[in-house]
Amino acid sequence: MTTTVLPSYEDAVSRYEPVIGLETHVELGTATKMFCGCRTEFGAEPNTQVCPVCLGLPGALPVANRAGIEATIRIGLALNCDIAAWCRMARKNYFYPDMPKNFQTSQYDEPLCTDGYVDVEVDGKQYRIGIERVHLEEDTGKTLHVGGATGRIHGATESLVDYNRAGIPLVEIVTKPVPGLGALAPEVAKAYVAELRDIIRSLGVSDVRMEQGSLRCDVNTSLNKPGEEWGTRTETKNVNSLRSVERAVRSEIIRQSGLLDGGTRILQETRHFQETTGDTRPGRSKETATDYRYFPEPDLVPIAPEAAWVAELKANLPERPSVKRARLREEWGISEVDMQSVANAGAVELIEETIAAGASPAGARKWWMGELARRANEEGIDLAAVGATPAQVAALQKLVDDGKLNDKLARSVLEGVVAGEGDPAAVMAARGLEVVSDTGALQAAVDEAIAANPDIAAKIRDGKVAAAGALVGAVMKTTRGQADAKTVRELILSRLS
Amino acid sequence: MTDLTRMSAAELAKAIAGKEASAVEVATAHLDRIDAVDDRVHAFLHVDREGALAAAERVDRGEVTGPLAGVPIAVKDVIATKGVPTTAASKILEGWRPPYDATIVQRLRAAGMVMLGKTNMDEFAMGSSTEYSAYGPTNNPWDLGRIPGGSGGGSAASLAAYEAPLAIGTDTGGSIRQPGAVTGTVGAKPTYGGTSRYGLIAFSSSLDTPGPCARNVEDAALLHAVIAGHDPRDSTSIPQPVPDVVGAARRGASGDLSGVKLGLVKEFAGDGSEPGVLAAFHESLEALVKLGAEVVEVSCPHFQYALPAYYLIAPSECSSNLARFDGVRYGLRTGDDGSRSLEEVMSLTRDAGFGPEVKRRIILGTYALSSGYYDAYYGQAQKVRTLITRDFQSAFERVDVLVSPTTPFVAFPFGSRTSDPYQMYLADLFTIPTNLYGGPGISVPCGLSEGLPVGFQVMAPTMADDRMYRVAAALESAVGTLTPPTL
Amino acid sequence: MAAISREEVAHLARLSRLAVTEQELDQFAGQLDVILQSVARVGEVAADDIPPTSHSVPLTNVYRDDVPQPSLTQDEALAGAPDTFEGRFRVPRILDEED
What we know:
heterotrimer; A: 497 residues; Arc Repressor Mutant, subunit A; nine-stranded mixed beta sheet; three-stranded antiparallel beta sheet; B: 487 residues; alpha/beta; Amidase signature (AS) enzymes; 11 strands
């Protein structure tokens, strides 16, 4: 294998045009699986949420979960799709141990929803991402690979399978190919996933947490010279965060342009995104595409959503995230630019929920856009995964508003919350970070500081009120910052007046 | 004392209800009969003596009642019975004990019926002679050197050997009707969706239909009424109420068919049927005319494509249905010596666990579904299916039922049709069309040819199962039932 | 001309995870060839504008409510398994990558 000299990203996009496509899987939050009544709760003991149907026992038959159908239709409607008047499920046949029937019940040439779009905004410009299809299928079980070094399949000596997740409904959303994005392809891809996530979350049909696997993304990338036909596309999997979406597209553009510059053909292949390095690694290359031998699922009858039902679902769609953002912007009294930053940081819902939990808009924004956003950026994770919940942030701000914490102490408490030590009040108590409000104790510290600094005290008595700052500093030091500076200053001044 | 094993199901039910015989006595008599003859017939793969007696005791204690309470029944081994081995006559499921009951088994139990055991069949219901069972064939009680039909040869043979008065079979291309014909018993395939498939190990999902097997028409109707009806666990289950098949059978038994039009399918009259079969069939037709029926010739031009279409659709669906047998979650696993990959172990397991006919159909089905071939094979077959359905529909605008011999040949000797698979497939020539249409069909004994039973088939429109029971019962009233030689 | 070659049969066997022996391959190829030539007759029917039938029951929209039902216990689920470990089904090393 020859090593290619990789161009810079800017260079690559100046000479090649990227075309991207995204395939997203959403795990629905229904109470039961798609084709049986097993529970879907996360974290159960292995193989305790299974039955003859989802275990694929001989003789078992599927029965469709109405809630899954409804959720899929609502997602399609929210994405401006046409809803099929009549369609069927299909069998996708292939062998893999996490699939109990060795076929996946899915949809093939008759998806429930087709031909929609999502509008996203990047750098003040609007982009329309076409939606090719939205269809319903079932999730697989989970396989643990044992014996290898990495816990991945390569080098494993055996595998262990848990079918609790098998049969949970998945909605697959496939975009049309999106050309014409130029250098902004990575940002637009990320913005699309973020918007999609917000839309689906607003429907209440899924948690859509990338870090938990309820929103999974594969990104397709191809390059072509201007004026030429679209190039061969590669598929990148293991894209587990919004940041990774952006990085994966960027890295594929760079990699492919390097190969094309060197005259090498792009292989149509599946690649895996590497979190640590930000580039993609080839998966096992398949000589020919798998033939899934799709045919209509004979054990399930066709789905023909009644027009009246679809109309009702459409009429009851929740507010669009973009409309909601405009409304919140007004409520919070912030500029469009600031709102865009909030949206880019993935903080809209988080701030909204924090306000719902009792914080003021300013208070909520301060923490999410400040300390927490900083942490998320440092660790390269999404804001939602940073380790603090809206309820916790609201509680933290309340402690500050109540005078129990000052800003500095609050940051320390937040650190503990994010580290998993518990809720703000618990961390505050455990770490002993509460502002000392006992005036008696404060008075003692004040007197101590006055006694230790007689010349400063003298200046204050003389009316040089500004000098109090130094004494305040001394008291803060002795109380390890756990005093309210304003109160300390008042005590000093009253003592020395 | 009357030989309890010679009584019909209706007679047994009456005797038990009237306390002339206890359910335990009845069960014991049949279990003893099995002990006495099954080493020669080999109808059963598993006899559940304990379970049968326990069920009989519950009936005797009055804990369960119903029109067939206490009547023993044999169940084809393709149907899941909780805790009782269910193998589909395959090595790949040797010893598998399901953790659940099929819906129809639940209904049998709730009706107080006494399950004697599981009957032999062609592996995964693929065959017409039971020679493809991985556990050895079943011998036809009429002539132990001949096949009992298939795939449900064990159920039919158990009836002909008086080991059970009733049995459950499944019919995908004729697997209830053809064994009924060659063993001189009654075998009925209900309308597709009329009996629940939940718990039926799937062969061809859009065709499989569980159904009743008995020694006379009324018994079959009584069993039909117990097992049929909507099941929310089967999405293809018909929601409409079960037609009054028992009433229809009783009405038919009065022997009056005035005004009933019998459709004779022109395309079935071609060569292929044994002369003795045709002779018995035509005599029966005359008997029905004497009862007032009218014979009308109908043309179903696409019926000649039914066999080829079936042998594309069924293997395709089965290739997918049988993919789950991979040695991971249940059943046989072989070749796992620590050096092999899962893919290798799966492939070795499936090659060791499946018999040749099953393998042939899996490969054929995989081919017919392959991209590039789907349109010409599976896709085209489903279109032919539409045309066959239309043929039935137009025929039924002119006649009330269609009639034919059930199968072109009487019970053939073992080994005579296994070297050329297609020769075996021809046994289903007359039964397959109605499976593709989804309509009900019944085989009734109508005479003998060279000492071997011949079956008469009646087919009705979908949902009109009662209509076929009426005509079948009328024929039975005219020609009587057959008595197999004593074993 | 053969409707199906020995190589194609071998390929299909691999696709359907059947480790057929050489002898089986020979036998099946011949038999399948005969069968295929017979079933190919469906192609004689002009059916371009005929809709295919996938279900013989005219049902649509059969659903269940999103209400939990009892599951099997772990023991019941694993009861028939050839090999298990700590509540999971154990399988030898997998070659193919997950899709």
